[in-house]
Amino acid sequence: MIFHKKSLFMPPPSPFPRILRGRRQFRRFVNPCQYGFSLFRKCIEERQRLLLNHRHQLATHIRYLATQAPDRHLTHVADREFDDVLAMAAAREVGAGFVFRCLGNRNVRLETGEDVDMASLIASLPMRPYKSLGLDARGHVAYGKNRPKRVASLSIGACRVFFFRPCTRGERRNITLEEPLGVHLVVIRELEAPDGEKPLCWLLFTSLPIDTQERQARAAAYYEQRWRIEPKNAS
Questions:
Q1: pLDDT (0 to 100) of residue 217
Q2: SS3 label, residue 192
Q3: What is the C-alpha separation between 161 and 184, in angstroms, rounded?
Q4: pTM (2 decimals)?
Q5: Which of 130, 140, 139, 147 is closest to 217 using CA atoms?
Q6: What is the arithmetic mean of pLDDT over 111-122?
Q7: Which candidate, 206, 157, 204, places its Cα nearest to that of 183?
Q8: N or C: which end of the chain has fewer CB within 10 A?
Q9: Inter-residue contact 159 to 186 (CB < 8 Å)
């Protein structure tokens, strides 16, 4: 299992490394007449786009890691910052698994062909009792010395959804899909939270099988590990 964190990512290599480091170094090390100012501006814009658009960089890392461990089946786990259809398509391309928490503000298509928003889908999805989980004051899973403030009683449900339409704004505005991309959606919810507490709700896109509750719980368990891994990365 590989957990991806935003701070770990750097832009991929460029054929114009000195140009992409900024205007000052461009003027110092590169003759503008050699490439032309129009190309210079294009490279600067590309650099800025890559720095901001870290989601799409995850697809590059997934493909690269597949070449470094060809004899292993990798499962990539990421938080909402990497909710990106290109990363999911890259994982499918190289035969890797993924569990990505989604933002919850997108529209999806069901197997019946109906197009729905995530809020409506979550409200109508059948849920079954899952387990109790200790949460700290921030609503994160409490592990080790981080003692739980309360215990949440969780329910779980799952279904298959498809991404189907091109995006016309934001960082994804140039992305088009040749065909709908099918993934599994696992929902972990706290149906009855105490007064004054925000109910826990995880929306996980995954390539892992979800035909049984045990397999749905496996995808949820992968995501739970982030609260064990992140403190180690920070130290």
A1: 94
A2: coil
A3: 6
A4: 0.73
A5: 130
A6: 90
A7: 206
A8: C
A9: no
